[in-house]
Structure formats: C-alpha cells, structure tokens
Amino acid sequence: MTTLEITYVGGPTAVLTLGGLRLLTDPTFDGPGEYPVGRRTLVKTAAPALTAEDAGPPDAVLLSHDQHPDNLDTAGRALVAGARLVLSTASAAARLGGPVRALPSWTHTDLPRPGGGALRVTAVPALHGPAGSEPVVGEVTGFVLSGAGLPRVYVSGDNASLDVVREIAEREGPVDVALLFAGAARTPLVPDAPLTLTSGQAAEAARLLGARHVVPLHFEHWAHFTEGGPELSRAFAAAGPTGRLHLLAPGESVRLPDAPASRPA
User: The Metallo-beta-lactamase domain covers which part of the protein (predicted)?
Assistant: First the structure.
C-alpha cells in the first residue's frame, strides 16, 4: 500500500505526495507583515519554511478559498496563475479564472496517477464560522482524497463546524489521515465565535472521522489564531488514543503508514 508524505510549509500550506502526485494546500509563501482584507488587517508573524520554488510545481492545488490573504497571498496567487490545475469554490473560479476549476460539494474529479489508476478528489462542505456567517466570510470548501491502494485523506479547509464534519464522516468516512485547520481563529468580522476549529473541536472531529492520524494546519503564524500547538497537544492527550496527533514543525515532513480504512475508493 502507498504511504502519504506531508511536508508542512507553514500556516495552511502543506505539500502532499500521494499516489505519485504532488498536491499543494492553500499556497501562502509571503513573509511576515500586515495584510489588508476589506477594512481589517491580518498580521502574519512568521515566514514560511519553504519558498514556492522549494515546494516544487504541484500537479494540483487544493484551494479552500481565495478571499482571505492568510489562505492565498500574493506569492500564492502567482503560483495559482501558473498552476496546471487548481480545485476550489465556484466563487474562487469566477474571481481568479485561469486554471482554477470549481468543484461543488460532493462532486469529484479523478487525477491520473503516473503508474496508472487515479487519485480521486472529492469536494466536501466547509463553514468558515458559525451557522449564518456565510454571507460575511464567503464560500469555503474542503476535500477528501481517495483511490485504490491509497489512504483516505480529509483536508478540512477553514471549517469551524462539527456538524459539517459529522456529515462528511457519514458520507466519506472513516479516514486514515485528517489534515485539520485549527487554531480557533478570531477576528472582528465574526466577534462572537471562532472561524476555525478550536483544539477541543479538532480532537472531536478526529473522533467523528475515525481518523488514525491527524496533522494540524493553519494554527500558527498569524496573530488572529488564539490556540496553538500546546492547546492541540493537551486536547488530543485528553481525548486519546495517544500517538494519533502529528504536530509538525515548519519544514518538517512525515510519512504516514499504509493500511487504508476499510471503505472502497
């Protein structure tokens, strides 16, 4: 069985190598600084561990959304413009054009693998805040990756809803690996609720998904995150079983075991 290699770049950005294909999540390669979005400013506190050139050209970009600079920045937009394929929301496809392809929730596309067969990418829902916040925060998507002999992988995008996770688990679970965007992000845009999963919710999401391995993304390097690595470690230690959480340092890679969950591709 094939293993999944994940290299954590920083923020929401990771390089996934699966089935002979290289995928890139939410490309952000700019340095620290202030990034305006509407009337607000988001503050990036650390540089990515890799440049876009270091990460290498992806076979596909998995873009959860384009409307916030902490998920797609200036360098990321340049990468997207020249990419072979970018899978994202209908809103992103309309705004960005070029290689960006809208993939509505519960639909899929099959990416040919170099050695034969295909890697299936299924779009799944995401809610970037509490129920009813969609007109304010905009459209967001997540993804499930699957294929014959491959681990089943969930990439949450900026989802803050356990109800959404529960629906994904019922329709697409169990998963072998969950890449959960966490950090309990908070901004004045939605002052009364987090815009991404809290640490406790991330642990509960892993339980709902039956995830054997969890790699958190988008929980550090921006000032609007209110929970980081220590909170994630405590939440997963309390939830058990131990050894499921892989808290990577920027630039670090992990190769996760095979033996996919017992569900057809």
Answer: 22-219
Helix 199-209 × helix 162-172 angle, to 10°: 20
Q: Kindly give the residue spans of alpha helices, DSSP state H, lying in the chain.
A: 52-55, 74-81, 90-96, 134-137, 162-172, 199-209, 229-239
Mean pLDDT of 190-197: 88
Spatial neighbors of 178 by CB under 8 A, at least 6 apart, are 153, 154, 156, 205, 206, 209, 211, 213, 214, 215
Residue 10 has pLDDT above 80, yes or no: yes
Best CA proximity match to 37, nearest among 13, 72, 63, 64:
72
Domain boundaries, the chain: 4-256
Global pTM reads: 0.95
- CA separation (Å) from 52 to 29, 35, 118, 154, 178? 6, 19, 26, 23, 24
4-256 CATH: 3.60.15.10
Distance CA 238, CA 35 (A): 36
90 vs 94, 104, 124, 248, CA distance in Å? 6, 7, 13, 31
**Token pair of 32 as six digits:** 């620290």
**H or E element in which residue 215 lies:** strand 213-217
Residues of the chain with pLDDT > 90, as a percent, come to 85
